[in-house]
Design goal:
By secondary structure, this protein is α+β, with helices and mostly antiparallel strands. It contains 25 helices and twelve strands. The strands form three sheets. It has a five-stranded mixed β-barrel with strand order 5-8-6-7-11. Strands 4-12 form a two-stranded antiparallel ribbon. The chain has a two-stranded antiparallel sheet with strand order 9-10. The longest helix is centred in the last third of the chain and has 35 residues, at about 640-675.
Length: about 675
């Protein structure tokens, strides 16, 4: 049950009445109910708010009494999928009594008085926030501290909720600050205290809709007029489109996809249903690419484009209807990759079927390259988010090529719509550009040209992003693997955990060495007239591969250790491909095995984004080194093809069962346990 609290403590606009004659606070309460709150309570003091929070078992919405906004603004705040704790942030200039905010990459990284921020303010607190269940103790501690005229310390809060005295001038202290010029409203002090505790807070910006904080009848009248002037439903439909998307998506999809969004909503389609339809379109395109012939290739290109449109529509529909779920987000991530790799498979088969060359080799290369790229993208995003949350220090505040690159990137990103902005977004070869390139090259030429084009652009994009990110990462020097379960995201098995630890070389160096052995074996096998004669080299390549396991127990705190998961993925994929080539397994079988591996690894990255625990049957996947040992044994026994097929089928079954357990069986059990009657281990609701 979602609880909403209207905080009327301290200086506020509680006495203002709206144009209809009702108190502004009462209208806010009604809007909170429309926004999804199951219960709305009023708190006259911060202590009373703290007591209400102590009984909450679900996310809590908190607002002041001076907010005039569309109901959709509060609904977006209540349903935001970006994180558990989200604050409304306005673009208004900071004023006395309001908490200034500095945000980076959508996260509130500092909040307090304008003159106390670690950098320039990017906005001002909008007087409303949603706090996730895990952050409710911090919210209660911030309320108690603000009620006593104190602010929490900046260091991680302890069990007792330690606080430090607020400076007499109301400015910055060792643990945080309130808005300059006075204590500010209670909700401002509450938010400043929550941020000072180091709580991860995401920013919810207002775009196209209206939200203002008011102080007097004139301000209230002006804000109400601004709200009335905007068509709420039309604005929500436009808001379903991402504010910053890639070039192809922006100009060739989002210009007309909102019409499909509205139609889908009227037909009561769910985002998951649209995702399923987009998979069918991509599958149809892959089949036509495999069939070959100009009509089939053109038809496949059209289906591929329409499938990508639907791929955009599912997310837009979720934003328009506010139907978000962890399952839907996970499924969308997995479906995107599955669709793309099915298309690669269709192209690869089409090349071979038409006698244009070894299409499966090109398809395997494209899939491997794209997966390793995605792994670096994911972990660089985690690195950037972690860097944004950390205070700036003298060592990385300014100077050096990393700082200059960071500043240049920020300037380009801020210059929305410029040529440099679109070049930066396009050169990295995002999914819209990939699908557009495939559709155009297939329709105009053939699958061989399409796969070569994907590989060439992909390699150039990988080199570009890799070089720049490496320089920026060395400047930021922020460890990220140490903030998560490194064993899980390395995908280590029992063997890696048993191996001795070699610390001086570092886990990244060891992971890169691990990839070199399989790479050399693969190149030798591809160049050899009789690759099966290299069976003796498989154990040697395996030993080199296992070098990567020597860093499993070492600290992953180097500036480039965020590359370790991608390096290990490359090492395992290269070894599996090399085993298949040496064992003369068919190309489609090697592709299928690597595809199953990528599905498993994308599951891990999808869980990383939500900081979820390991899949239910993760231990049964054996780890990258365990799977590689089994393949090596199959190759030595002369049954590499059987080994790939058997192990691939086993991993696929484990993955499917794990998905069923994680998303259906376990949630159903939890739901039954939560409503179990008395005498059966449950409690009777009061």
């Amino acid at each position: 049950m979602t609880l909403a609290i209207v905080l009327a403590a301290g200086p506020s606009a509680a006495g203002l009445t709206t144009a209809t004659g009702e108190p502004l606070a009462d209208r806010l309460a009604a809007q909170l109910r429309l926004a999804g709150a199951d219960e709305v309570r009023f708190a006259a003091t911060l202590d009373e708010l703290s007591e209400l929070i102590s009984t909450a078992t679900a996310p809590v919405l908190v607002t002041g009494t001076d907010l005039v906004a569309h109901t959709a603004v509060l609904r977006h705040l209540a349903t935001s999928p970006v994180g558990p704790t989200v604050a409304l942030v306005l673009g208004d200039p900071p004023v006395p009594g309001r908490t200034a905010v500095r945000e980076e990459r959508g996260q509130v990284v500092d909040a307090g008085a304008l003159n106390a921020l670690d950098g320039d303010a990017t906005g001002v607190f909008g007087g409303a926030l949603r706090v996730g269940v895990d952050d409710l103790p911090n919210l209660a501690a911030a309320a108690r501290a603000a009620a006593s005229g104190m602010l929490p310390v900046a260091a991680p809060i302890g069990p007792a909720g330690d606080v430090a005295p607020l400076p007499a001038n109301g400015g910055a202290g060792s643990g945080g600050s309130v808005a300059a010029g006075g204590p500010g409203s209670a909700v401002d002090r509450l938010f400043a205290g929550l941020a000072a505790l180091g709580t991860l807070i995401f920013a919810q910006r207002v775009r196209l809709l209206v939200a203002h904080r008011v102080e007097d009848p004139a301000g209230l009248t002006a804000a109400e007029a601004a709200v009335t002037a905007v068509d709420e439903d039309r604005a929500e439909l436009r808001l379903s489109v991402k504010e910053k998307d890639d070039f192809f998506s922006t100009y060739f999809v989002s210009t007309w996809s909102p019409y499909l969004v509205r139609l889908s909503a009227r037909l009561r389609l769910t985002p998951t249903g649209v995702t399923a339809i987009s998979v069918l379109f991509a599958l149809g395109a892959a089949v036509l690419f495999g069939v070959g012939g100009r009509p089939a290739l053109v038809g496949g290109a059209v289906l591929l484009y329409l499938g990508f449109v639907l791929d955009c529509v599912d997310g837009q529909l979720a934003r328009y209807t506010r139907h978000f779920s962890a399952w839907g987000g996970w499924l969308d991530t997995m479906a995107d990759r599955a669709k793309e790799y099915l298309v690669y498979a269709g192209l690869g088969f089409g090349v071979s079927h038409a006698g244009l060359g070894n299409g499966w080799a090109l398809a395997i290369a494209a899939m491997t390259l794209q997966t390793v790229r995605h792994m670096t993208d994911t972990w660089y995003g985690v690195l950037h988010d972690e860097a944004a949350r950390r205070p700036r220090t003298a060592t990385n505040a300014s100077g050096g090529i990393g700082d200059r690159l960071n500043a240049a990137s920020t300037r380009v990103q801020a210059d929305t719509g410029s040529v440099s902005y679109w070049l930066k977004r396009t050169v990295v070869f995002p999914i819209g550009e990939r699908w557009a390139l495939i559709a155009l090259t297939v329709a105009l030429f053939n699958p061989l040209v399409s796969l070569i084009a994907v590989l060439v652009w992909g390699v150039l994009a990988f080199a570009y992003t890799g070089a720049l990110r490496t320089l920026r990462a060395r400047w930021m020097w922020v460890p990220v693997l140490d903030t998560v379960d490194a064993t899980l995201h390395r995908d280590d098995g029992p063997l890696a955990r048993w191996l001795p630890v070699v610390r001086p070389m570092g886990p990244l160096t060891l992971a890169v060495i691990a990839a070199l052995g399989p790479a050399v074996l693969l190149v030798a096998a591809l160049l050899a007239d009789a690759p099966d004669g290299l069976g003796w080299a498989v154990p040697v390549a395996l030993l080199v591969l296992l070098v990567g396991g020597l860093g499993a127990g070492a600290a992953h705190n180097g500036p480039l250790d965020w590359l370790v998961p991608a390096a290990l993925r490359a090492a395992e994929y290269l070894f599996a491909i090399a085993v298949g080539v040496v064992g003369e397994a068919p190309g489609w079988l090697i592709f299928g095995y690597v595809f199953v591996l990528t599905v498993h690894h994308y599951d891990l990255t999808a869980r990383l984004e939500k900081r979820q625990a390991a899949p239910p049957l993760h231990a049964a996947t054996l780890g990258w080194e365990g799977r590689s040992v089994l393949l090596a044994l199959a190759a030595i026994a002369g049954i590499a093809g059987i080994g790939l097929a058997t192990l691939g089928a086993y991993l696929l079954v484990v993955f499917v069962v794990s998905v069923v357990l994680a998303w259906f069986v376990r949630p159903a059990r939890s739901a039954r346990a939560s409503v179990a009657p008395a005498g059966a281990g449950g409690a009777v609701p009061r």
